[in-house]
Amino acid sequence: MMFTWVFLVSLFCMGTQDRSDPDDGVIQCGPQNMTETHNFTDQRIFLTWEDDPSCSAIQEELIYEVEVLRAGKRVHDDEVVVTADHIGTTHSWNWTSPLALECASHSIRLSSRYKNHTSPWSQEQTIPGTSPSDLPKIFPQDRVVEVGSRVSFCCVLEPGGRFDKMFIKGYNSTDMNTTKISNQTYVLTVDLNTPPPYICTDVICNTYDSGACVYVGYPPADWGLQCETRDLQSVECHWNIGRETHLTGPRATAYRLLGRLCSDEETKRRSCKQKVQVNVGERNWTLKAQNVLGSHELTDRADLSERVHMFAPKKLTASTVNSRNVSLEWSWTIQEYNQLHIMCQIRLRHGGQTHMINDSGVGLNVTVLRGLMPSQRYTVQVRCGTEHHFWKWSDWSTSTFRTKDDLPDSLDVWIQTEHNQTIIIWKKLLPNQSHGDITDYEVTWRKATERERQNKTIFPPEHSVALSLDTSEEHIVTVTARNVIGSSSPAAITISTLHPGREVESAHISGSDGGFNVSWSVNPAASCGYVVDWCPTFSICRVEWLKVPPGVTNARILSEHFTDGVRYSLSIYACTQGAPELLERREGYVRETKLPDNQIQLKWEQLGSDVQVSWTAIAPRNQSAFIQGYIMYYTDNSTPRSNLNRSFNIGPEATSLTVKNLPISSYKFTVKALTSAGECGDTSFSLSMNSLTDKMIMAVIISLVSVFSLLSLVTILCYRHWTCVKLKIYPPIPKPVLTDNWLTSLGEHGRHWLHVDSCHHSETDIVDVPQLYCKQPPGNGDISQEERHFVSAQTQSPKGYYNQPLRSRAPAALTLNTKNISSPSGLPSVPHRSVFVNPSYDSMLQTDDHSGKYRPSMDSVSPSSPELQDGKNLDGYQPQSPVETCGQTQTEENPESPLSCVSTYILIPHSSSK
Amino acid sequence: MADRRTRGTTGPEPSRTTAARAAAIAEQLHHECGLLLELFRKKESLSPDLTAADGRLVSVPPPSSQLDTRDKLWRLHSALLQCRGLLERAITKEEEELGGAEKGEYESQRKTVRDRLSLLLANTGELLKATDGTAVLTPSLEGSEVDRPTVLFEVKLWIYRIFKELDYWTKTAITTLQALPSAAARERGRSGGIRRKRSARR
């Protein structure tokens, strides 16, 4: 029992001893006075607390455990170690939530731990999340994040709302992940690995009317800070923009130079200025660039007194302007510049030319420009910099001035002879030669042997004058130009009695690069150099010329008037103390051009199997290039694919070509001129060659036709002139002289036929026939058709009937060509009546009374009457039909034929007694 | 009444001309508003599904067939004035929050719309004066300051709604202004007693 009591007492003592241990009080140690603050923008939670007084007993470090609960779930824990010497002070803890604090309620609680003793959790400090509204809410809003960040957005649905979708515009869905943290809240986590496509990128939840905007960008990364002074009172720094931050507006980068914020205007210019002490030697000049995502510091170390970037000179003016020099003045806006050693560049521009002049001095603000040209407008620019420790040039200052006028330069005079006139021509003075506007030109001339002068005033723009000078005398001509200041020195030229340009052979010259390179032999007479003049060879022109100094024997001739394909004549003269002396001549083209086609006048001739082509030479006037020769091509037309046969290539003087031994065929010949521009002036013709056999046949045919034509002509002539021919060949048969007895006795012996052949018997024969007397009709000549009719009607009966010979009785022994008995007067048989003096014959022909012894006429008897048609019944007499008579005469006797002879029977009337 | 009658004989001619000109300006503005909306949609990549229906930003008396020509004109003028105020604020806000980038086609079109709206307002104001001869009141926009959004997403929607509102009111302007001459003619045909009553009510 006693033991039991002792044991219990011991235990009590031990328990009492334990309570007296300092650790006994630590058990009560923990946080007190916890204060929670938070920042929604930063998503940061701040927690401060104090130690319980019992903690003061702790000699070692005390550890606080912090636990963060989101929507009741532990999302973060942390430890805060408090060393023994800090026990009793206020402790703090902060944490940045990866998720916006509005997304859900956040609770923070603390517990302390000392050795093995852990205090219970303190009371939670809770940050309530946002309350739902009628539209989904998305957090965080307007967040600025750096490219490459992982960002979480939550979507707090409206009460009873159902989650549909959540995304961020412009990013791939593979970079997004959506999780649910409560029934009402969903979280989108996205890796923003690329710069945003928009200034502010939208995060959308369910509907497009609810969302948030997030800026995704970079912290500043500018570079290249460079500081200088311009006014010697402040520092001005410039920098270069680095990577695009993608942040604008209030989130854009702000700059601070030496701690002072640069203005927006300065920021836009990437320049910032601040008043400083300049003469402080070398030091660092610092610019800080900062935006929401970070900051960047740029430094430049420099002594500003060695980095003076001057302002441009002000009020730059030409204070004193003369014809050939000008004083240029300017001023400085910064007074301190007047003490600086300044060097300046003066840039003078005039007529497309630029001259640079340098000048320097302390506070330099004036300079003199010399060697200027009179009456010229100049543009002058000035920029300056410090001479010692030169840093940069200032900007240019610009001004213009015009120098004053001066006397004109001497003229460049030349002569040209044209139609017995001497044209004095001079070059217009350029602006830099006239030194002011030219008012007029004065031309004076005199004979070399006389002192008396003549003059003439020429007004611009004329720059030539035609003078009719005595060509037998040498003349001296002078020309002066005048402007408002005065006259130029006279330019003189001597005109010789013999005009230049004679008796000198011309050589060919080739142009190059739009001009001529001409050279000539040295001539000792050329005391004052040479003159080359030129003009188109074949057209009227105003001569151009170039004067070459002594000792130079070549020149490059250029002219804006040069035309391709035009022949020019160039003359080289020696400039002497007297008149110019022609030395050499050239002819050539600046550039030869091809002759147009069909320029060559061709003729051709086949000579057996040869073809000779000839042409007229192209006149030089019509040549656009020198003709070096001719070439002829011919192709066989009968074989279309035959090769072009080159024929001959001959010199320029030739005017014909012959192609020998050509096979008989059809050919196309083309003649071309050869020039340096190539073959040109193509002229073609086609020729079908004739064979020799064809030619012979043709000759025979032509001969035959000729002979036939000749014979026909002779025949016609003979026919037409038959009377004449007949007279020549067959003289007229004498008319038989019939006596009354002869007739009477004849009549007594009955009726007789007289057959008279007037053509085939000689005069003797005819004379032997005493019955007829054929008398040549008066005025015998050409006999017309009517006359022939008339002739055939001479035996017409008074009633119009004809005597017609019977065919059966048509012996050619004795015929009478009735034509030769015709009367040119057209009167039938009247002359013959006077010739036929036989009264009985006359009475028979003319007296109707004798017709009673006559047979019935056609008036009373039908031609078809069988009695009348039968010649036997009529005893040799046959009544005639006029139609039949005519037709038979023409068809059978062919009265048209000049050689035909008509036999005519003359009917001797019966005696009425019988 | 005598004054009204006098205007009735001389007023309608210039009024008709002004109304036609104003209608033409409204048509042009409506076209330009459409372009501006499209450019804004493109710039901010707004979805075609975006409704932005959060009530009207412009507050005017409801339309009614009882309104006479002058009241319709006043209602239109008031709405357009509010539109211009909203547009000015939208531009300022947009420059503050989203600006800073280089000016492009959108900014140019925005300025064109603003200028054209001012021109339309000058014409509707002229029409109002011609109708009644009284000075044109400028509606206060102070109340709408409360509605100015603070977060960027809402700023975008707000600007979009302003453009939509402007689009709506320019369309209304076309209808109202084109109908103006015929409505005025009808009213002239009525007796003057009605006018007297309304004047008395005022």
Kindly list the characteristics that best describe this protein:
heterodimer; A: 914 residues; mainly beta; seven-stranded mixed beta sheet; five-stranded antiparallel beta sheet; 53 strands; B: 202 residues; mainly alpha; 6 helices; 0% strand; elongated; disordered N terminus
Identify the overall geometry of chain B.
Answer: elongated
What's the helical proportion of residues of chain A?
A: 10-25%
Strand order of the largest sheet of chain A: 41-40-43-44-38-39-42
Largest interface: A-B, 21 and 23 residues
Q: Please report the number of helical segments of chain B.
A: 6
Which class of secondary structure composition applies to the elements of chain A?
mainly beta
Question: How can the largest sheet of chain B be summarized?
Answer: none
**Major sheet characteristics of chain A:** 7 strands, mixed
| Beta-strand content of chain B | under 5%
Whole-Å distance between the termini of chain B?
15 Å
Mean model confidence by pLDDT of chain A: 79
Number of helices of chain A: 14
**Beta-strand share of residues of chain A:** 35-45%
Report the helical percentage of chain B: over 70%
First-last Cα distance of chain A: 245 Å
Structure description:
The complex is a heterodimer of chains A (914) and B (202). With 914 residues, chain A is mainly beta. Chain A is built from 14 helices and 53 strands. In chain A, the strands form 14 sheets. Chain A has a seven-stranded mixed beta sheet, with no helix packed on it. In chain A, a hairpin with a 7-residue loop joins strand 40 and strand 41 (544-548). The longest helix of chain A is centred in the last third of the chain and has 29 residues, at 692-720. Chain A is elongated and about 205 Å long. The N and C termini of chain A lie far apart (245 Å). Residues 11-20 and 743-914 of chain A have low confidence and may be disordered. Chain B is an all-alpha fold. Helix content of chain B is 72%, strand content 0%. Chain B contains six helices and no strands. In chain B, helix 2 (12-44) runs antiparallel to helix 4, helix 2 packs antiparallel against helix 5 (152-189) and helix 3 (69-97) runs antiparallel to helix 5 (152-189). The interface between A and B is medium-sized, with 21 and 23 residues.
